[in-house]
Fold:
Amino acid sequence: MGSNPTLSANMNSLLKKPSAWFPIAVSLAILAVMLIGIAMSGVPAHQADEGTGAHIFQIWLVLEILMMAFFAIRWVPQAPKQALTVLTIQIVAVLAACAPVFFLKL
Structure:
């Protein structure tokens, strides 16, 4: 069972679309900002007020869902296998960005 060169070519061309790579890039940027903040300042203490960082995270999460929904609506009907693969990568990137929040109870 070898890889399908046409599938790979279609996958690469789909990943070049902004609606495919932008949600991944934003998720990785959010993850980097959180990890750098934790590395520089330590894990923040739990406060009654969530703070600016939490609000930015919440806004990002809503926008991320909207971006992924746009991608799915736009590309899944045209190229289902490739689009679902990209959508899986986007979901993994979101989960990676959410992981510090859940594991560190931020």
Notes: Residues 55-106 form one domain.
